[in-house]
Design goal:
This is Aminobenzoyl-glutamate transporter. One of its GO terms (molecular function) is secondary active p-aminobenzoyl-glutamate transmembrane transporter activity. InterPro entries: AbgT (IPR004697). It holds the Pfam family ABG_transport. By secondary structure, the chain is mostly helical. About 65% of the residues lie in helices and about 0% in strands. Helix 9 packs across helix 22.
Length: about 525
């Protein structure tokens, strides 16, 4: 809706006035509950202590299980015993060094950092939201939002203000642009047609959890790639429809008369930047063509010994390929714009990217220890086997189990907004449980993506919620938490429902989730 198509003064109807206080109260409760939780680093050590006590009690009671289909009996081991202490001390470094996402995320970030810090990703986002007809601006901003996750947290900083500028440029409410951009990033965070650093993190955690049941389990960072591509298109379409038929009809979309967004950046690129972007994209296209040409022959060194792509060097080394592709585009762009002046600037940019990831790497240390303890105690085996037996004995349909998992993880996500932290807590139980119900770990990971994203745009526990609110207040000074939540809530609900339906259709039709990855 154009800014001239509604009354100049924001007027709230009775329904809005009744809903907004409820949203504010609900968000306040969530915020207080979330603030009571410790930092994720300490949360995992607290969970490890709880696990140690539980393992001691269960081991003392002689708790054990026999895996479905036979096999050796699995006894719970006491983490508080002498053997448990010896394990915790002797394997601490190994646990951290061999934590599956560790090396992968470092390699990916080195390449992405070059593309992001040279300005390539920001330039690509500007072009993506500015060079579309006015009728397509909502879809463009939403779709770019789902793709922007390759820039990790920088996606919020770059795209959210650009969303407001893009909408204002075509005569629509910049408030709506802020909301669309933020929600597309937050509630579509795990749906990207381009492999992202998060894909590497999630795959590593999923693989570690899957090895509780199958020690040879291998989960690739592109294991959900096909599903992610379809999800990004669907979510952009849902955002477009809800924005058009729900949000655009709200009477309170006008910006303050004195609103000034002149310091939020610009949608335009200089001639030098445009030329650099063209050459960087051309470099990417040529690199992809060369990669395809190398992979196509059945005797390709990037294929497995039997000529397939399953467990091939292409898939097991996809993190390196992604890093190289982003690194190349960033080097070309930076060399032509001057952000890279000499060869030594490239490793410096990589180091800056690693520095930005330092908090995540610190968290990885705690997560790696917790997962190792979980594996040692076999508490996860007991919970998974007993839960699977309960579900099977009561003939609970797997579809119902999927819905229960979605609801459980969705609630947890409101309080634990770190996707890697939440998945590290849930995966050791949920992945083995569903594997015992004949559900592949990659399918469980796809479920997690939906739950991890849906409520993110609504919860004030996310630091980016506060940041988006700051951008919103540039256009309306009186906006508060309830204001932003009331805008994002319809979008988040519709996106979660549509994404869930897509998953069940995908699962029902048996469509592969990614290269060589069956959904069931």
């Amino acid at each position: 809706m154009s800014r001239t198509d509604h009354d100049p003064a924001p007027v709230q109807d009775a329904t809005t006035q009744e809903r907004l206080p409820f949203v504010v109260r609900a968000m306040a409760v969530v915020e207080r509950a979330g603030n009571a939780l410790p930092h994720p680093f300490w949360l995992f050590w607290i969970l490890a202590l709880v696990l140690a006590v539980v393992s001691a009690v269960m081991a003392g009671a002689g708790v054990s299980v026999v895996p479905p289909g036979g096999g050796d009996r699995i006894d719970v081991q006491n983490l508080l015993s002498g053997d448990g202490l010896a394990m915790a001390v002797s394997t601490a470094i190994t646990n951290f060094a061999e934590f599956p996402p560790m090396a992968t995320i470092v390699v990916v970030i080195m390449g992405v950092a070059v593309a992001e810090r040279t300005g390539f990703l920001a330039a690509a986002m500007k072009v993506g939201v500015s060079r579309v007809p006015a009728a397509w601006v909502v879809f463009a901003v939403a779709f770019v939002g789902t793709m922007s996750h390759v820039a990790s947290a920088a996606a919020y900083i770059i795209l959210v203000p650009l969303g407001g500028l893009a909408f204002r440029a075509v005569g629509r409410s910049p408030i709506l642009g802020i909301v669309v951009a933020y929600t597309a990033i937050a509630s579509g965070y795990d749906a990207s047609p381009i492999p992202t650093p998060n894909d590497a993190i999630f795959a590593g955690i999923t693989q570690a959890a899957a090895r509780i049941v199958d020690e040879d389990a291998l989960v690739s960072p592109v294991s959900n790639w096909f599903f992610n591509i379809a999800s990004s298109v669907l979510l952009a379409a849902v955002i477009t429809l809800v924005t058009r038929f729900v949000l655009a009809k709200r009477p309170d979309l006008d910006a303050d008369p004195d609103a000034d967004d002149s310091d939020l950046g610009s949608l335009t690129l200089s001639n030098r930047e445009r030329r650099a972007l063209r050459w960087a994209v051309l470099t990417l296209v040529v690199a992809l063509v060369v990669l395809v040409a190398v992979v196509v022959p059945g005797s390709s060194p990037l294929r497995a010994a039997d000529g397939s792509l399953d467990e091939s060097p292409l898939l097991t080394g996809v993190a390196m390929i992604v890093a190289v592709l982003f690194g190349l585009t960033g080097i070309v762009y930076g060399s032509m714009t001057g952000t890279i002046e000499k060869a030594g600037d490239v490793p410096a940019l990589m180091a800056q990217g690693i520095k930005q990831m330092a908090p995540v790497l610190v968290l990885f240390f705690a997560i790696a220890q917790f997962l190792a303890y979980f594996d040692y105690t076999h508490v996860g085996d007991v919970i998974s086997v007993r839960a699977a037996e309960l579900l099977q004995n009561n003939d609970v349909p797997v579809v119902v189990v999927f819905l229960l998992v979605l609801v459980l993880l969705g609630v947890v996500n409101i309080l634990v907004t770190s996707g890697s932290a939440m998945w590290a807590i849930a995966a050791p139980v949920i992945v083995p449980l569903l594997m015992l119900l004949s559900v592949p770990p990659e399918t469980t990971q796809a479920l997690f993506r939906i739950a991890d994203s849906g409520s993110t745009a609504v919860t004030p526990m996310s630091p980016y919620f506060v940041m988006a609110l700051g951008f919103l207040q540039r256009y309306r000074k009186s906006a508060g938490i309830g204001t932003l939540a009331s805008y994002t809530l319809p979008l988040a609900i519709a996106m979660t429902v549509a994404w869930t339906v897509l998953f069940f259709v995908w699962w029902g039709l048996g469509i592969p989730l990614g290269p060589g990855v069956s959904v069931r």
